[in-house]
Design a protein that fits this description.
This protein is α+β, with helices and mostly antiparallel strands and 125 residues long. The protein is built from four helices and eight strands, in the order αββββββββααα.
Length: 125
């Protein structure tokens, strides 16, 4: 027992889960998790908001998707709501052998989707 509270029994946990409400959030474009020295960006994530009425004082979010790490402050800018980072550009360049300008343009056209930009540049050749 931690903090003087008794552990939750499996039966009690099952009842809590039955009362829990979950809402899938539509239209989420990205989630950014900021650390002291880096950021993890999750593009086009699936996000579920969950809460138990009367039990928690704050909402709980479950985020699912592929994340990309980047140093804090490394982003060069946002074009049409899409953040294209230097590390994303370098990754696309390494995978396709394209120039920095072509890689950045493909990322912008694909709304930051790394795989889409890579496929676009590889099929262009």
């Amino acid at each position: 027992m931690m903090g003087g509270k008794r552990p939750i029994s499996p039966r009690e946990a099952k009842r809590m889960k039955a009362r829990m409400r979950q809402i899938e959030l539509e239209g989420v474009e990205e989630v950014i998790i900021r650390f002291a020295d880096k950021e993890t960006v999750i593009h086009n994530p699936s996000v579920v908001k969950a809460f138990i009425p009367g039990m928690l004082e704050s909402d709980t979010f479950q985020v699912m998707g592929a994340g990309t790490d980047r140093p804090r402050g490394s982003e060069e800018g946002t074009v049409a709501g899409v953040t294209v980072t230097d590390s994303d550009v370098e990754l696309v360049m390494a995978q396709t052998g394209s120039s920095k300008e072509d890689a950045r343009k493909a990322l912008e056209e694909e709304k930051g989707d790394l795989a889409g930009a890579i496929v676009k540049l590889k099929t262009k050749k």
